[in-house]
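INFO  loader      accepted 1 record
INFO  loader      residues=211
INFO  predictor   begin
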Amino acid sequence: MNRLVSIISCLVIFLAMPSPSHAADLDGLVASLKAGGYVLVFRHGATDDSQKDVYPFKFDDMTAQRQLNETGRHMARQLGEALKKLGVPIGEVYTSQLNRAVETGKLLGGKDVSPVDALTDSGAGSSSGMANPDGKNGKIGRAVRDLVNAPPKAGLNNLAVTHKTNVTDAFGKEFADIREGEALVYKTGASGPAVLIARVQASEWIARAGS
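INFO  predictor   done
INFO  writer      dumping C-alpha cells
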C-alpha cells in the first residue's frame, strides 16, 4: 500500500513539474522566504471521502470527522521535508480545529500547531456558503485576513492550514479552485494588508527540493 502511495505521489509530481521560467520564479520565492516575513495559507491534504463530517463538529471525536488518507499524509510529509530542505524558516503554525488540518499542519511544520476557530471549515460541508459577504462567513473571512495580515516574528514565516470554504470567504470565489496541499503565499508588511505573491502546488515545492 505504501509503495502504491509513493508511486502515485511521484506520478503527480512528474505531471506537475513546473516550466523552466516558473521554476526560476519559485527559486526566487524560496530565496525570499529564507528571510522570513511571509504567511503561507495551505489547504489541507487529500482526505478519505468515505468518511463524513458530523455536524455540529466534534473536534475530539476522530470518527465524526473526515480524515487524511494515506496519499494526503504522504504528500504532507514530503512537503514538510521539502520546506525544511529548501531552508524555509517556519514560525507559528495555525490550523483548523479539524484533525485533517491539524495533522497536515504538524507534518508541514514539524512542530505543535495552534488550532483556531477562524480556520475551521466555515461551510459546514456546503459549497453554497463560500464567499458570503454577510453573517458568519463574512466574519470568518475577516478573521482569516487578520491572521494573514499579522507579520511573523523576525526571520520566520507563519503557516495557516485551512479549508477551501475559508479561503474563498477570505479572498474571494476566484480561489474556489484551490487544490489539496496548495499554498497561497502572502508577503506581510508593517502597514497595510498582506499581498498575494504566488500560488504554489505541493508537488512544486517537492520537485524543487529534489532538484
